[in-house]
Each structure stands twice: as C-alpha cells, then as structure tokens.
Design a protein that fits this description.
alpha/beta, Isopropylmalate Dehydrogenase, 2 domains, eleven-stranded mixed sheet
Length: 360
C-alpha cells in the first residue's frame, strides 16, 4: 500500500451505509468526530443520499468528503457471497481507499463477517496471520484487560489461538502502554490438563514464545484484571462480551430502581450521580465505539449494528488513534518474529487458505 500523505493527514474511510440506523447516525457520528478533531473523514456510500444528509445536519463545512458506492451489503447477507459479488459496495470502497493509501483506516457498523471477508479480498492478511480476529478491552483494574477473539472465528485451532495471543500482547502494548503484558488462555480450569485439545496444544506453543504467557485462567478471573490479555475462540469471546454488556445494563437498572424506591436514597442521589455516571461511561460499549480487526493489513474497526452517533464518533476517534500509533506495523512485527505456524503444531491439520476462509 502506498501513502502520499502523512498518517495524520489521511482520512478515515467510514462505511456510510453500515448499521441498522445508517446512513443518518453514521453521518452524525462523522460530524461529531470531526468536531472533536479526529478528521478528516471520507464517507463511502450512496453519494446523493449522504450529501443530502450531510448538508441537512450542518456538516458541509467540516473536513468530510464523499465517495460514491452503488451497492451496500445488508446485515443478513452471506458474507462471502456478498464480498465476491458486490464489488462496488461501500465496504469495498472503504478498503480500496486504505489499500491505495488514500485513507489510513476504515470503520463500519455493518455486517462484520462481510467486512472481514472484503478485507481479506482487498488488503489481505498480515504475514504469518492465519486467522484475523476481533479484539476488545474490559475496564478492569489496574489496567484494562484485552479480550480476543470476540466473534470472528467460531472454530479455532491451536496455532490460531497462539497467534491471537501474540497480536493481543502487541495490542495491549500499543493501546494501553502495558509493559510485557501477561497473556492467558481462557479455560474451564487453571490446570494444564483442562480445556480442549486445541487449548492444551496452544498452551504448549505459547510456552515456546517470548511473550509473558501465564497459563490458563477461568471466567471469574476476567473481571479482576488477573491477566492483561485473555485469549479464547470467537464463540466463547462473543458470549463473554454480550454477557458483560447485559450485566452492566441490568446492574445499573437495579441500582436506579432501588434508589427511586427509597425516599432517603432519592435525597442522596445527587451525591452519587456523578461517580455513577462516570462508572457507567467507563463500562458502556458505546464509549469504546468499535472492535479492531487484528491480523488484516490495515486498521479496520467494526462497530455494533445498533451503533448510535456516539458509538460511531468514538469508533472514528479510536481508528485515528490506532493508525497514528502504528498498530498494524507493531502486530506485523510481532507475528513475523514469534508466530507459530501449522507446521510446528503436533495436533493440527494444514491451515486454511484465504479463499477457503471466505468460501461458501
């Protein structure tokens, strides 16, 4: 990928047609991000529709440009089929801008599987990354806990988990400044004999890498910050993430109901409002904005399909930060030096090719 401008001056390519509330909330989020200093932004989608909404919302004077795309990929479409057939989709347009060096990162709130598939067809994977994965962070103390994969790969092999661990460690260092982050595999017990065959083989592989691997952790360890990076398959990771989101919503709902049911508590509510609001913002998924895809040869973030303007804005801001921090280069360097491959594993079949990964 060639780049004619510095990373700071390159726009973030945003899929204007991605998400349940697109393009309205996407455009609102882009406007908010630019006003927060995260521009420039290029909105990729239905040119006439995006331009009309941008002018109506008062964003015509901001560093936002528009690139027309004649197609869009819906949430319910087959990722691989849509990626191959809809070559003029807004997602393709976003990745082509990054591939050509005309954008430094891309963001969508659309079909995450299709976004990954389009990325694999355009910018491709980093060398020695067999499966890109989705990453997020949990607001634990004293430092956030990086959790991956959270949905990209339901079925994984040991080498995939080992590569996730390396990418997660690099992400923790770049994103949070963690020195030699501790890395663990999520299992049903801490003993090395627990877990699946893939987990036990990944345990063996990670013990041969130079990262600070500390072994298995259980689900209860996620909330106490026991490890800086926790690695699992995409099915388990997505369940953990959605469970955490649901618990936060339920917990704060119960606290609010308890306060409202007691006159004395209501009288004291102003005292607790500010710290509770700050805590909620820390735990709120919209404050994170989107999940980066690690392993693609690009900075690419995927937001929730129901993302609000706030979430889109924060996704753009975080994409700008990841690009300026050199996230992709750091992950590429880590994989190049340390990543195990299928040839090293004693219990794995050869890895899938890119075509197989996005095949029907």
């Amino acid at each position: 990928m060639t780049q004619s401008l510095s990373q700071e001056n390159l726009p973030i390519a945003v899929d204007a047609m991605g998400g349940d509330k697109a393009p309205l909330v996407v455009i609102e989020g882009a406007i908010a991000a630019c006003r927060a200093g995260a521009g420039p932004v290029v909105l990729v989608g239905d040119g006439a529709q995006v331009e009309s909404e941008l002018e109506r919302l008062g964003g015509a004077d901001l560093p936002i440009t528009i690139q027309h795309a004649s197609e869009q990929i819906a949430m319910g479409e087959s990722p691989s089929r849509a990626a191959r057939r809809k070559r003029d989709s807004s997602m393709h347009g976003c990745f082509r801008l990054v591939e050509s060096g005309d954008a430094c990162a891309t963001v969508t709130a659309g079909n995450s599987g299709a976004f990954l598939a389009v990325g694999l067809l355009t910018v491709r994977r980093l060398k020695k990354c067999e499966r890109p994965c989705l990453v997020t962070s949990l607001p634990t103390q004293p430092n956030p806990t990086v959790l991956l994969d959270i949905g990209a790969n339901v079925d994984v092999r040991a080498t995939h988990l080992a590569q996730f661990a390396l990418m997660g460690a690099a992400y923790s260092e770049i994103q949070f400044g963690t020195d030699k982050p501790s890395v663990a595999l999520l299992s049903n017990g801490t003993e090395p004999t627990k877990g699946t065959e893939a987990l036990r083989e990944a345990h063996r592989l990670l013990n041969q890498t130079p990262i600070n691997y500390i072994g298995f952790v259980e689900g209860r360890d996620l909330s106490n910050g026991y490890a800086d990076v926790v690695v699992t398959d995409g099915l388990t990771g997505n369940i953990v993430l959605k469970l955490c989101e649901g618990l936060v919503t339920t917990l704060f709902g119960r606290v609010k109901a308890a306060i409202q049911s007691r006159p004395l508590a209501m009288a004291l509510a102003p005292v607790f409002r500010k710290p509770l609001h700050a805590l909620y913002n820390e735990l709120d998924w919209e404050s994170v904005g989107a999940a980066p895809i690690l392993g693609l040869n690009a900075v690419a973030l995927v937001g929730h399909g129901q993302s609000s303007a706030k979430a889109i804005s924060n996704a753009i801001i975080n994409a700008r930060r990841a690009s300026s921090q050199g996230l992709t280069a750091a992950i590429a360097a880590t994989l190049e030096m340390n990543a195990p491959s299928g040839e090293i594993s004693t219990s794995e079949l050869p890895m899938s090719s890119t075509d197989e990964l996005i095949g029907e």
